[in-house]
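Recall from the previous lesson that a structure prediction takes nothing but the amino acid sequence as input. Here we apply that procedure to Serine protease PepD from Goodfellowiella coeruleoviolacea. The sequence below is the only information supplied.
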Amino acid sequence: MTENHPAAPGDEPERHQQPVDGGTGQSAGNSPEPVSPWARPQPAAGEHQPFLGSHQSGPAEPAGPTGHGATTPAGATAVGAGQVSGQPGGTLAGGPGYDPSAVPGPGQQPGQQQSQYGQPGQYGQPGEPGQPGAQPGQPGHPGQPGAQPGQPGLFGQPGMPGFAGHRPRGRGRGRIVAGVAVLTLLVGGVAGGIGGYVGYQAASDNQSVSNALSQPTSGKQTANAPAGSVQAVAQKLLPSVVQLQVTSRTGSGEGSGFVISSDGQIVTNNHVVESAATGGGEIKAVFQDGTSVPATIVGRDPTSDVAVVKAQNVSNLPVVELGNSDNLQVGEGLVAIGSPYELTGTVTSGIVSSLHRPVRAGGESGDQTTVLDAIQTDAAINPGNSGGPLVNMQGQVIGINSAIYTPSSGMPGQEAQGGSVGIGFAIPINQARRTAQEIIDTGKATQTVLGVSVRDTQGNSGAEIVDVSSGGAGEKAGIKAGDVITKVDDRRIDSADALIAAVRSHAPGDKVKMTIGTNRTVEVTLGSQPVTVK
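The prediction returns the following tokens.
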């Protein structure tokens, strides 16, 4: 086996991305036993753990707010708080000596009050009505209220000696005047508001009222979608995207694929259909119009995570247009199409977030590592999107959606989150195209190899050669054990996976320049080896 990865002393454990559909593909390091598409790996505490992507039957259900306070005004007791001028011996309400019972009740006139025991008092015959006292502020001698019904009795007579807080009438009058002024301002404000409201209502009555509910329904839009829009891409690609439903003895799952020939050849991920190949299961292809037909595996390559299946009893299918993934630029717009969580024909959009990401996806049984020279995108890719197309804004397929990054939940014993976090990975179509063509032509795929075993270096300064295969491409180029490869052409190499991804992005027989250390360069003609499929 070439391109093995023995761990260097002191190396940290690697973090893996996992495929995004319901196949049984495993990340390196898992047990060799096939895993049901229902099963998901349990992350170690604090470890970023990838998620085995394709969605399983029975998607998780998704898992949403207040009152107003009011303030009340402070008691407005200032207006008219003093006794009215001309009344006998008045005091300020609430001041010392104030008798609350002297406050007129409903229906009473000022000066009317029930006696303490409810009967008219026996003293205080009526004198001259309403005359002021002889001294300023003193009660008039004859001017005391009499014993008519409602007049005060023996106790609590206004102006009796001992009541403090008497103030000259002039001050009381000033307060009253001030109170009247305030009241006038308030009334003026209300009157202005009423006048404004009446004017507004009069103006409103003269205006016509429009209502959206009374408008006629707009006609159906028949114009074509703008070129280069997500809408135009979706209209072009959706008829050629299929859902693949896979059942086997170990369980069931589903993924996506896209039609590359009118007679039913479909490209998808190996990990989408792997359980059907190894578990004696079956595959159904479901098209955009709901048509469902059986499909069979033409061939598959676990090392590149590419497979081809053939839909049965179909013809004249619309096929996709393949683009050139070598022309992609970071920031370029992209569209992802597939069947996440069994939602067929789902369209999401984003950009090229990065290129040449070395990503480990699922292998056949845990011992077969797939290293992708991946396109990174922020277009939402979720379980069930695996195998679906990643498309440029011209409607050309430039990648196969394959894996997502899934952070650990951070809690021991809890599963990692299983949805898009804006970091998805796709196989470049140029690499997948070559593999798919080999599978269609021969039923098998070949793998591009360097003929060496590598491992990470301390400090991620390159890929260290551990062993060189006799007669392999590396030996022929003069590469020796202990060499550290730092570049392939102009591409920087900082890990063993980066070197493998760079090699596998090429076809067998391609010539590349490799930099060893800082200044030594060798030219290598890359070799090949058949992919063994169990």
